[in-house]
Amino acid sequence: MHPFEVTILGCSSATPTSSRNPTAQILNHCERYFLIDCGEATQIQLRKFKFKMQRIDHIFISHLHGDHYLGLPGLLSTMHLLGREKELHIYSPPGLQEIINVGHYHSKTFLKYKTVFHVLEEGSRGIIFEDEKLTVETIPMNHRIPCCGFLFREKKYLRNIIKEKIEEYSIPVQEIPHIKEGKDLITSSGKTISNTELTTDPPEPRSYAYCSDTIYNESYIDQIMNVDLIYHESTFTSEMIDRAKETYHCTAKEAGMIAQKSNVKKMIIGHFSARYRDLSPLLSEAKECFSNTVLAEEGETYAV
Amino acid sequence: MHPFEVTILGCSSATPTSSRNPTAQILNHCERYFLIDCGEATQIQLRKFKFKMQRIDHIFISHLHGDHYLGLPGLLSTMHLLGREKELHIYSPPGLQEIINVGHYHSKTFLKYKTVFHVLEEGSRGIIFEDEKLTVETIPMNHRIPCCGFLFREKKYLRNIIKEKIEEYSIPVQEIPHIKEGKDLITSSGKTISNTELTTDPPEPRSYAYCSDTIYNESYIDQIMNVDLIYHESTFTSEMIDRAKETYHCTAKEAGMIAQKSNVKKMIIGHFSARYRDLSPLLSEAKECFSNTVLAEEGETYAV
In terms of DSSP H, where are the helices of chain B? Predict the structure, then answer.
């Protein structure tokens, strides 16, 4: 199986604590690296956990609260100073380009590489990135300002051709792609060999959903139904439900309810309020609704 | 003596390294805290070294290169979230307020406290802060964009009155401030008692000069003449003199020349290029010109 895994770089909400950084995570799919949110000190975290920042070509920013993007100007500058020439794609709600440009104007900075800003429309579900292996869709969140999550889905794998069958039926090279796509073989003598005899089932495509920040709402459950791994914000315990509502955040219990209703396989909870030094109450609460829950831990890598 | 000391929070130049953060330092004068520059992750460094960020009422930003201010938006936000109500004064070249405002506009942030932006004119020397104990002056630097250093000077101390003399001459309470200022005493019988009999010399006022970033130039030597402690940028070794000139920075040797020519008592060098893992070549080079030089070290506190 190709690698498909996410590493948490920061899992604190609004303010960093002595042990937790603001939100950022890096997704590795087949050695392509996607950065999701970029809180202050993300470049320092990337360095600490030994990720090569120049391998990142796509950055997804969920929304423009500082704890989700304030590390971006420094990261862009460091990429520039280290000699980057490759294009960089940045996806976010409206405004980020203006923020970056104002800083560059005053510092007289002209990046050596091209940045392409993709503006995400509020409330829309849509594919914002696609290549031969993966799609990325926005998941509309309900927060105080325009905000969206991101759903990374592998495309269907081709079927695995059984090597011995290539020899047995002298399959011509040009037929192999068609067989991998599921077609039967017609031999030179006109006989039809069923695809099921020639191939084995490919692995199931995997999916990862990043859901932060949002007040509890069930609008995206159908979209993330059955995903393999979900990261869900879980800012407060249920005691703080009023504060959660007021600030458009979720409790751990609510995150558990989302995971349970959307029938995901596994959930990481994160975006913890700085008030919690001990995170076990958040974990227990989420687990009451959805047992396969783990706490986000900085530097930790989770397979999708 | 009142405390007067500076703690280094970050001493890297343009990019952070695995062991050094972008520029920031905190000056404690009589338990009043002044922040000088505020590179990315300054709020994290303040927390790490156990400084109470709400005690900072004045922030001085030398210039608008990201490594000197990108920690400011996050720090302002954290001060707000922790309930700050006190006014905060921010001194910088033009543009910083616009940068902060654009971020707040897109995050719909309305700080609970008042921020007062003081715009520093390029190339001017002037007192930008003054209270009963201290003045802060700008030191014009020569960098790629408008930039200034900061000179913190204690005001003259009052003379120390000798307690026994108060009783001996039955000095009235209302006369004491005058005597501390250096006046003689005229007793009720009309006799003049010389001030030198009543008082001892106060401590000498101390001074600290922050000089970063700048290309080598001697224009500010007269201004920092005889200061007790100077922090001077020292981005490169002399081998890299061309790069230093091109980027408007100093070598360690040049920092040493400035310290020597301005007859300062002690120098901290900092703002090290990320290329130096071992800083001892920078130290040796500066010491050749000015022996009382030390390397900036994060978390270390230096008495003025």
Answer: 42-48, 66-69, 72-81, 96-107, 163-168, 176-180, 195-198, 221-224, 241-246, 252-261, 280-289
- Render pLDDT for B23-69 as a digit per residue (tens, 0 to 9): 999 999 999 999 999 999 999 999 999 999 999 999 999 999 999 99
pLDDT of A188: 86
Q: Which residues of B touch A103 (CB under 8 A)?
A: 64, 66, 99
Percent of chain A that is helix, strand, coil (3-state, to 5): 30, 30, 45
CATH superfamily of A4-157+206-303: Ribonuclease Z/Hydroxyacylglutathione hydrolase-like (3.60.15.10)
Chain B CB contacts of A51 below 8 Å: none
CB contact under 8 A, A98 and B102: yes
> Is B67 considered catalytic here?
yes
- pTM of the entire structure? 0.94
CB B59 within 8 A of CB B141: no
Candidates A79, A76, A62; CA nearest to A10 is: A62
Helices (H), B191-279: 195-198, 221-224, 241-246, 252-261
Question: Predicted confidence band at A2 (pLDDT cuts at 50, 70, 90)?
Answer: confident
Enter the tokens of residue A47. Answer: 């360095």
- Cβ distance A145 to B67 less than 8 Å, yes or no, reads no
Rounded Cα distance, B238 and A268, in Å: 51
Contacts of B249 (CB under 8 A, 6+ apart): B13, B213, B214, B215, B233, B235, B236, B243, B271
pLDDT digits (tens, 9 = 90+) for B250-290: 999 999 999 999 999 999 999 999 999 999 999 999 999 99
Give the span between the Cα atoms of A15 and A249, in whole angstroms.
15
Distance of alpha carbon A188 from alpha carbon A176, whole angstroms: 15
**Yes or no: is domain B4-157+203-303 CATH 3.60.15.10?**
yes
Closest-CA residue of chain A to B93: A106
The residue among B205, B210, B185 whose CA lies nearest residue B197 is B185
Asked if pLDDT for residue B72 goes beyond 90, the answer is yes
* CATH 3.60.15.10 residue window(s) in chain A: 4-157+206-303
> What values do phi and psi take at A20, rounded to 5?
-135, 140
Where, residue-wise, is CATH 3.60.15.10 in chain B?
4-157+203-303
User: Is B95's pLDDT higher than 80?
Assistant: yes
Predicted confidence band of residue A226 (pLDDT cuts 50, 70, 90): very high
Residue of B nearest to A92 (CA): B106
